[in-house]
Design a protein that fits this description.
Layout (H helix, E strand, L loop, with lengths): L7 H27 L7 H28 L30 E2 L2 E5 L4
Antiparallel strand pairs: 1-2
Helix pairs in contact: 1-2
Length: about 110
Amino acid sequence: ANTTTIIYGDVAWMLASTALVLGMTIPGLALYYSGLVRVKNVLACIMQIFSIVCLISILWLFFGYSLAFAPAAQNLDKKCCLLFGDSSRFWMNGMTITSVHQLAQNIPGKSA
């Protein structure tokens, strides 16, 4: 049995650093691309960037996480999954608040 404890300071740091990255990325992209359009289109450009960031976040949550962190196939029968993870975690299947990843055992993330 995996007897890991969740350290809430590590979880808080991961959430804070994620918020900082998103807090710098969204305005940075918005200001960059807004400088390339006319003044009357700035608000539309900012809203398009915000919408795309929201869409990408949802796609990462439901699909990208599984492809990045699910265990890769160990046999050669599934050649598509040798480098990427499989679809065992799509739609957060099997995820709980107490599940952890072997590389970050103090942060909830992935069941074994």
